[in-house]
Amino acid sequence: MAAEKMLPQIFKFVDQNVESYKALLKEAVAIPSVSCDPKYRKECIRMAHWMQNKLKEVGASTELRDVGFQTIDGNEIQLPPVVVGSLGNDPKKNTICVYGHLDVQPALKSDGWESEPFELVERDNKLYGRGATDDKGPVLGWLHAINAYKGIGEELPVNLKFIFECMEESGSEGLDELLMEKLKPEGFFDTVDYVCISDNYWLGTTKPCITYGLRGISYYFLEVECAKMDLHSGVYGGTVHEAMSDLIYLMNTLVDKDGKILITDIYKSVAPLLESEKKLYNSIDFDPEAYRKSIEAHKLPHNGVKEELLMHRWRFPSLSLHGIEGAAFQPGAKTVIPGKVIGKFSIRIVPNQEPEEVEKLVFDYIHKKWAERGSPNKMRITAQSGRAWTENPDHPHYQAAARATRLIYQTEPDMSREGGSIPVTITLQEASGRNVLLLPMGAGDDMAHSQNEKLNVRNYIEGIKLFAAYLYEVGKLPK
């Protein structure tokens, strides 16, 4: 059937099945697949089995791939299996490998949620629930797009392969090894032509985008431990050099009030700004004043200049302080002096910055500052990292996605980079040797890792249509 007839029928089918799409998302959100908390590990495993069954229902062949165990507090805990599947094997069709994740960040109603986080609730045409936009809604969008083709009696225009994990929010443990040491040698990627991920968001709330770059990330754990002395003496006489004082000193040397990273040579290897890239920033639809109001800031850094704001969000490294383990945090007056504290911070790294190089710069800087401190306490720093990723937005794969986006939203999508990190992106690029594209479903105000995470009903339903149109457009690309 020609596109001018087939796609409108698909879109009509989608519009007729909105309530069933909401119901399935409600079912998925109800599984509290929090990957960072061992007490929810069985729920993560249940989530993987649930997804496998849903893939089978659309006709995919599937398997659950074991990725071993992880050690938490000295205990060996099973990692959730990775759902691997395929649908169609027509050698005349292009094959897309779709990646998504089914685990979520922790959430409690007491954190400030207006409704129970693991119960999908619709308010003002928004679907609230943990995982609604990150990433259960987008993952289910692929199932709905497949069913829409089936619903009107049409074959899929492409073959599909699936990789869905339940550990993305906790570093994707075990996934790289599965992709590079098992699936790649087994030939899983041999027939793959393109890779698509939908685990990111529009820059704002109204303009669709396609993402061609992500920052990498290096997590750091900075541990300071007191010598074994009577910690009460710190209260009474100042005879103990407190671990907390040392840690605050070190963390205060990392970044200045304007967000500039103070670590020596950290900016040295950042990729130079090309004129072609600079032009992309000029054309992106982003209103600094509207952004300032949306985050309730009295002023923006970099004098509120659009291009500078976007570049510091996407293409320059940034450092964030996350928290301190071991300190007394309960309300009320406390005079507890912790014997050991662990400070957590991260650096978002960008193209041309290699994690090993950045880690060495950080370690050298911290050890230099520690020597200057002259403390009798013990200090240790460790890290875990993932690389940055970029693609060419002029690639035919991106142009196919742009055509699909124009069809659904009647506007030209922005080609944007993203300030966040999805470490598996570069692994999929290396495992497949193919072009990787990030096609967002959610909006920039979805609060993915925060309270009251939501997915707009419009984004969910139009996103399903977008995925269906994207499959069609990629199906037209030369084999």
Description:
The chain contains 14 helices and 18 strands. It is an alpha+beta fold. The chain folds into 2 domains: 300 residues, Zn peptidases (Aminopeptidase); 128 residues, Alpha-Beta Plaits. The radius of gyration is 24 Å and the shape is globular. It holds the Pfam family M20_dimer.
What number of domains? Answer: 2
Q: Outline the biggest β-sheet.
A: 6 strands, mixed
The residue fraction in helices comes out at: 25-40%
CATH superfamily of the largest domain: Zn peptidases
Task: Give the radius of gyration.
Answer: 24 Å
Distance between the termini: 20 Å
**Helix count, per DSSP?**
14
CATH overall fold name of the largest domain: Aminopeptidase
Architecture of the largest domain in CATH?
3-Layer(aba) Sandwich
Which spans have pLDDT < 50 for at least 5 consecutive residues?
none
Mean pLDDT across every amino acid position: 92
Binding site for Mn(2+) 1: 134, 169, 449
Organism: Euphydryas editha
Binding site for Mn(2+) 2: 101, 134, 199
Keywords: Hydrolase, Manganese, Metal-binding, Metalloprotease, Protease
Q: What's a quick, concise take on this entry?
A:
By secondary structure, this protein is of the alpha+beta class. The chain is 37% helix and 21% strand. The chain is built from 14 helices and 18 strands.
Describe this protein with a few key phrases.
479 residues, alpha+beta, Aminopeptidase, Alpha-Beta Plaits, 4-stranded antiparallel sheet, globular
Topology overview:
Layout: H1 3-16, H2 18-29, H3 41-57, E1 61-65, E2 69-72, E3 75-78, E4 82-87, E5 95-101, E6 121-123, E7 126-128, H4 132-151, E8 159-165, H5 175-186, E9 194-197, E10 209-214, E11 216-225, H6 232-236, H7 243-251, H8 275-283, H9 288-294, H10 306-314, E12 318-325, E13 340-349, H11 355-373, E14 378-386, E15 389-390, H12 396-409, E16 414-418, H13 424-432, E17 435-438, E18 454-456, H14 457-476
Parallel strand pairs: 5-8, 5-9, 9-17, 10-16
Antiparallel strand pairs: 1-4, 2-3, 4-8, 6-7, 7-18, 10-15, 11-13, 11-14, 12-13
Helix pairs in contact: 1-4, 1-14, 2-4, 4-14, 5-13, 12-14
Site (Important for catalytic activity): 232
Keywords: Hydrolase, Manganese, Metal-binding, Metalloprotease, Protease
GO biological process, one term: proteolysis
